[in-house]
Every structure is written in structure tokens, then in C-alpha cells.
Amino acid sequence: MEILSPACWPLWFICLAMIASAVIDWWMFKVPNWLTFPVIISGWIFGLIHTLGWQVVPSDGVGGIGDSLAGTAWGFALLLPIYAIGGMGAGDVKMTMGFGSWVGAFFGIAAGWWHIMIAFFVGAIAGGIIGLIMMALRGQYRQNAAHMQVIIMDLFTAGSMSKVSAKAKERRPRWHRLPYGVPLCIGFVGYLWVAHPLEKPVTPEVSATQSAMQQKGTLKLDKTRPEVADALLKSHKTQT
Predict the structure, then answer these.
(1) Which of 129, 136, 156, 198 has the largest count of CB atoms under 10 Å?
(2) The whole model's pTM is what?
(3) 31: alpha, beta or left, given left = phi > 0 and alpha = psi -120 to 50?
(4) CB–CB of 98/41 below 8 Å?
């Protein structure tokens, strides 16, 4: 598998970081800054290394510092609405930003934004399934339905996201908490290990080499075509 090649070490790193955040979030219901900020900043440094024309390992990514920053912003934008209504903590948002910074630096933002979004959706689905299981085990359907009704009403009547966030913090002690770092980890790590982005990105140098080889093969085939035609013609004449 391509993921096992040394050039895919950035994916190993971000997968291990997401697993660590899930374990800590499950244990403490919080993802600490000593984990989130180094992941974000190291992703920027990784992108800057590419921008300067260097690589830690040959062919270990195609994105630069701009791609890493864009991936960070995209990760923040995806989770901001959920954070605003109290659906997750700031640590989960920062870990997604870190994921975006590394994915942007590895795949480039042109492809990375899609991988970040799909991984987020997979994580959201995993979170929904876990939440439904928790609701079924507790059996508090009316209470959960009432919470959902209040959240929807706040979105339409609060007037601003800051007020929505403030009301969400007031309700938070009454909620059954779900460590959202766990479904995010399931979505992000599972997507990288199962889906096609696992394949190592093709660097410009590799792409140019492949194109040159294809052109060379086509040219060689064109040169041999007259000889093949002559041989077929001679064979036909001999048979007749």
C-alpha cells in the first residue's frame, strides 16, 4: 500500500495526532492546547519547507505554506457553526484545523479541501450514530427532542452567533456530553486509511517524468509502425 511508503509519513503523523486527541478527549472531555497548537503550527512549518523547495522525505507532499494555511482556515470554517451552538469544544475545532494544515501541505489545497470536507462529513456521521446509540441506551427521547427544539429556535431568534454561543454554554451543564474528538478521529483517520487519498500525491517532477516516458513510448511506436506494416504486407504476398 502507498500509505506504508516513507513519503506518506505526514499522514502517519496526523493520524497518530488525531488518535491521541480522541483518547485524551474520551478521558478528560477536553483536547488540550499543548496538543492542538503544535499540530497546527507544525503543519504550517511543513508547508513552508515545501515552499522553500525542500522536502523532509522525497515526494512527501505537494502543498506549500499557502495550502497549509488555507487547509487550516477550511477546517475552522467547517466546525465553527457546530461550535457556535455548543455541539463541540474549542479543542475539537483546533484539532480539525491541525488536520487541515497537514492535509493542505501534503495534498495541496486544490485536492486537500475536498479530503478535509469528506473526512469531516464521515466524522459527523460517526458522531450522529454514536449520539443515537447514547440516546437509545438512556431512553430520554423527549428531553433530547426538547434540546434540539431549543437549539433550532436559538439559531433563528438569537440574532447573532455570539448570543447563540452564550445560550449554548448556559445549557451545556444539563447535556449528556459526547467527546466529539472520538467521532472526528474515526472520520478523519478512517477516511485516510480507507479512501483513495491514501495514494501518494504525484509531484510535478514525477508527473513530468511520466509524461516524458509516455511521449517516448508513443514516438517509439510511431517509428515501428512502417516496419510492422511492411512485414504484414510481405506476409500477405507470400500467402497469396
Answers:
(1) 198
(2) 0.74
(3) beta
(4) no
